[in-house]
Design goal:
Largest sheet: none
Helix content: 55-70%
Distance between the termini: 94 Å
Order of helices and strands: HHHH
Low-confidence stretches: none
Radius of gyration: 26 Å
Number of strands: 0
Shape: elongated
Amino acid sequence: MYDPNKNRFGDPEDQFSRPPATSAMTTAAIACAIIGIITVMTGFIAIIFGSLAILFAVLSKGAESKPGRVSRYAFIVGLIAVLISVVIIIHSLAVIIQTYGSLENYYNTYLYTIEQYYGLDLDTGEVL
């Protein structure tokens, strides 16, 4: 006879209605992945959090043969955050070098602009 309180395998614990248990490493991985993807335009912060998401996702596997679904998603999102940030940083450096000729020329232009805007001599610290 059919008993609605039991699952189809006769186990009194219905394994299909409960969400799977997640470890603290999985939670940390998904949190770092979300922070990494949100801060992707900041560069190095996204690289740090994306790397932490990848690390926590790998460590959340533990003794299991395969990582959980949430850990895989955290790994993928963390990897995307790192890759996008690296591409943005490389592209920014390429545009600076193409526009100014070198990083040194960019730095000198930056110092000149700051000196003109604030009226400070940055070498001596005196007001012009």
